[in-house]
Input
Amino acid sequence: MKKIAVIIVGHGSRRPGFQKAMRRVADALKKKSDYFGVCCAYLEVASPSIPQAIESFAKKGADEIKVLPYFLLTGNHVEEDIPLIVKQTQKKIGSKAKITLCPYLGFDEKIVSLIEKRLKGRA
Output
């Protein structure tokens, strides 16, 4: 069976506790799936960095590492920075693991439904 790891990528912040919601997403995904591993990584300021998380899963024996940008909007980070980091890290780890860059969150009807719930004061 192929060992697939998932890295959910956020921007990063110095603000204490900023990562709680994203970690909850990662923990829920871990519980619902049979992924080899699931973790969060950050583009800036916080750790682990994207390369650190990728290298860690590669060392642990992941065959494939899926990198999912946890961003709603496109921009330089989604279009340039994260793809460049993934490309550079793939070169660094070589054939230890295949890195797949997944599409960022962007638009989805489920997000519209969530916004409607929040506007009505429901979680």
